[in-house]
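User: Can you predict the 3D structure for this chain?
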Amino acid sequence: MKISTYIIFLNLLILTGCSLFRLDASNYPEAELPPGTIKLKDNFYFDRTEITNHHWCEYLYWTSKVYGEESEEYSSALPYPKTWLKYDPSYSALDTFYLRHPSYRDYPVVGLTYEQVSDFAKWRSDRVFEYLLIREEVIEFHKTYNIDTFFTIEKYFSGQYMNYQPDSRFMYYPSYSIPSESDYLFVDSVQDSVNEQIDRFPLKKNPNWSPIWCKETFEPLNIQSGGKLEPTTHVFQKGNRKYRIINHLNGNVREFTSTPNLYFGLSFVDSCSQPRNKLEYDTTGANTYTGFRNVCTFRKWNSD
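Assistant: Here is the predicted structure, written as structure tokens:
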């Protein structure tokens, strides 16, 4: 695999927002914007959108190449296979098409567990830091990788990755994680001021605001009747003909928080009358109306 192919493979998830020029290492990490995020305060970077089906397929592809498609690691990364059937039998066809069909590539990935989204955040941290070190010529790009040779942050800083010793210029690494309850409430409090620069009608100034779909507006249609409504939609929203900076924080799908079984925001199964910054405990497991995004901070490696 050539490095150009590797860059294409990681394009949306890993490289969106990455500088393609060399950094002055003396400015790192202040000069680095973690891919896919927006900086909202010092060392606090928040995903602009929910993680998409395309992002998850990149994760599955990498996992299959390292561990194999018959491995426990690969099978445990797959979304629950009957998510849509469990929700409504008339949507059962989406269990086949939703994750991998091009029409849904930029829709939020669903059908996941807390453990799966936690594993993804760790994988994403490894891949972003790996790319950064390759770009800055700290480590070499290797066109093949397997279970014994793939890069992790822990391997690198402990000197166990290809015998590289940590570069003292890059002792901070990007750490992606599931946002906490307080993270979501903070972002909700500032999103209108962030989005207002491109959106003439930010949410708090729109008295008619509601999620894309909610209980009062979304009624699933039987496929036999000649059509169906899509419960979820594209992760980017347009305001004033431009994409919003922070998208679908309160609608489309609700989102995992760092507290297991606690979710933020609204989805198509919630009432339009509920507060847009709703927090809810739910133990029903993987489903069609829950997605996620990440928050990123730079952390200094500590070997202790």
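Confidence is low (pLDDT under 50) at residues 1-9, 15-21. The domain at 3-300 is CATH 3.90.1580 (paralog of FGE (formylglycine-generating enzyme)).
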